[in-house]
Amino acid sequence: MKKILFITFLLFTLVNCTQKSNTDNFQNEVYSQIFHEIIDSCVVNIEPIEFQENVTEKEKDDYNNEMLKIRNQKRLIAIYDTVSGYRKDDFDENIFKNFRTNWVKSDSSNFVININNSNIKANNTLIKASELPNLEKAFKDYKTWDEYEDLKNLDVEISFRRIFFNDIKTEGFLQIGVICGKLCGQGYDIWIKKIDNEWKIIKIKRTWIS
């Protein structure tokens, strides 16, 4: 009897591990498809402007060219590759009001995102935040990044949360934080949708700024 119970428990554990692995792989696949949009929309956040009537075409061209340079400049981006899950109360407060879906226990677990598979532009370089030990130290000591040698070339760091999907996995919702130094950062709610077999960002809402 004990042997049967042990085998049953072992099979149950293996099934749960397989399900978690499949879920994490799916999350990684979706993140790899929307990474470049997250960077373009949240890291390089250039709000469109309306030109006044007296602005010349040359001035418009000069402005647009300058904005293009900003978008295409080289950036070093630190990624917290451990993606945080949500407790049930955290889900009820932050997710359900924005995206109607169900919470399951596995949604509270963390997983590691594979940044090597990310589809990003050549001018952006990703680095794991864990490879920059002074990043956490700077926050704790309330210091600027320029005060640490390994952070002087860092442009931003991004932290991610687990993505929630509808039942048929055609739409999703996630939250991220983008920090650009001491007292410099923004948080975003992001809605995504599968369009022509690829995941796309369809809506972004800024939720906090510092």
Structure described in brief:
Helices cover 35% and strands 29% of the residues. The protein has 210 residues and is an alpha+beta fold.
List keywords for this structure.
8 strands, eight-stranded mixed beta sheet, 4 helices, 210 residues
Protein model, in words:
With 210 residues, this protein is α+β, with helices and mostly antiparallel strands. 35% of the residues lie in helices and 29% in strands. The chain has one domain. The protein is globular, with a radius of gyration of 21 Å. About 7% of the residues have low confidence.
Radius of gyration: 21 Å
> How far apart lie the N and C ends?
60 Å
Estimate the strand proportion: 25-35%
Order of helices and strands: HHEHEEHEEEEE
Number of helices: 4
The domain count comes to 1
**Oligomeric status:** single chain
For the residues shown, what is the average pLDDT? 82
State the shape: globular
Write the layout of secondary structure elements.
Layout (H helix, E strand, L loop, with lengths): L1 H42 L13 H16 L2 E10 L3 H7 L16 E2 L11 E5 L4 H9 L14 E6 L2 E2 L5 E11 L2 E12 L2 E12 L1
Parallel strand pairs: 1-3, 1-4
Antiparallel strand pairs: 1-2, 4-6, 5-6, 6-7, 7-8
